[in-house]
Amino acid sequence: MILKYDVIVIGGGHAGCEAACASANMGAKTCLVTMDMNKIAQMSCNPAIGGIAKGQIVREIDALGGQMGLVTDATSIQFRMLNVGKGPAVWSPRAQCDRGKFIWEWRKRIDETENLDVWQDQADELIIEPIPGSHSASVRAIGVRTIWGTEIYANSIVVTAGTFLNGLMHIGRKMVAGGRIAEPAVPHFTESITQHGVVAARMKTGTPVRIDKRSVHFGELEEQPGEARPYQFSYMNKGGALKQLPCWTVNTNAEVHEILKSGLADSPLYNGQIQSIGPRYCPSIETKLVTFPDRDKHPLFLEPEGEDTNEMYLNGFSSSLPMDVQIEALKKIPAFRDIKVYRPGYAIEYDFFDPTQLNHSLESKIVDGLFMAGQVNGTTGYEEAGGQGILAGINAALKAGCAGSDTDSANRQFILHRDEAYIGVLIDDLVTKGVDEPYRMFTSRAEYRILLRQDDADARLTEKAYQLGIAKKERYDWWMEKKQAIEEIESFCKNFAIKPRLINSALEALGTTPLQFGCKLIDLVNRPQLNLKNLSEVIPSLKEVLNHPSNRQEEIAEAAEIRMKYKGYIDRERLVADKMHRLENIRIKGKFNYEELQGLSTECRQKLQKIQPETLAQASRIPGVSPSDINVLLVLMGR
Fold first, then answer.
1. Strand (E) positions, 337-478?
2. Confidence of residue 135 (pLDDT cuts 50, 70, 90)
3. What phi and psi, each to the nearest 5 degrees, are found at residue 111?
4. What is the C-alpha separation between 241 and 76, in angstroms, rounded?
């Protein structure tokens, strides 16, 4: 059987779903190939979306017209805004979700997306053809052959295979091939790609035990409620109405640690069974014991899997120890003394591909028309996968020549820079620096954090997405309405005069210094003790300005207030970013044979020759390339 499309997306995880929807929404006839239609966007590990820096990525996906924020809002059972005690540059939204409803909400959105078909099958081989007379990639990806012999052809192929490529699961000394518990591995697909010069390696990740909540003594746990304020991820505000549930916290103890240590000889992490790279920032419980031998306890977080299930997720207890060791250790925690589990934790090894062999569009430098996104690029996390997926889907559609009336779309790329989005930081880190462990996004990875806040992703990205055709008119119109409302608030605060005799008593009641002279309202907004909400209680005309006719008053007021309070920091960071753009505009790809440039250090020549950076700014971010090396290149460019 032969099928033909513009774009094929292989893998129905978070990267694949975003890629497929993005491609289809841009007008590309798209086929999503997945092994199980009933596990679309499966939350293989924690049933939660967002977190530190990850929440910003979800807001960016939403601002671009993606689906993750909308699906999360419709299936959220607890929402929290993290880091609110710090500045807004690091505020990060996070939601606990109903795992089962999350899958079916995604299914619904895929079913409703025009131009998108689903083919349930397993990819077995990438179909390649040579490119005659090419000066870059010598081969082109033109399709995929499945295990059932179906051949699907397209102009662009997006690989988002997650942990399934040669996946191998571990519990103690027992090893079983699989891409996820009870799901088969994909055994040959990696080799059909690497035979053309693409480099692959192995990574490892893990997941914790799943617990039956009926066996838990909740009176001996500390409750962790969600936010009272109805935060949401999506700027389109189409959330659901699921029952909001608490999470719970507890600590391990010395008895737990002793039992876990007794099983280390059978741990695949320490007996030589697993040789691949594991995640530094989400270590297994046994790794915590080895790394921090003096710690007498470690925090655990018990989280619900959904509003209608007894299954619970024990965050912080990722493990590949023998199952009897895991369960015996947990029973030494008083709240878990009668514990029953659905399944133990396990580790999984899988193939990934060197991301430095990708362009910023996430297209391979070696195989033309082949795009990669998600864990196959060496990342970890649903959010990092979704961010890569939407960019890969957009660029795959552009490569296929599908972008509205733009007849030259096949030669276009949609690239996000480091000052435009966390997604831009993520992709630039991957293709410029590569990975030596599963990559996880943090706010500290972004040098322009105050420009990349969670509150203003729509300001940064929605107009770009609308011009591409991925963000629809409803989303664009809402952003323009919100933008106007923010500007009206700012203008009012800049121009409204405040008289001391009318405000001083209120200022003293709010714990701030009374005025000696009159001022503009913005001067009061900028005081740390004051905000638009408490000022509106004493300034009726401000309350009228804040009273937007939609139900988005809090979102609009928060965005306006942050822009006013942090204007100095924002302007200063924008100035730094603009200076860096000068180097971004100096293109160097294809202009040098780096091996012949003796003015550069040996390490620099080797790194530049391998990565072939597009611009001087990208070259400056490569580890091993020094400022003096950049100066040499500037001189050679005649700058």
1. 341-343, 346-353, 367-368, 370-372
2. low
3. -60, -30
4. 8
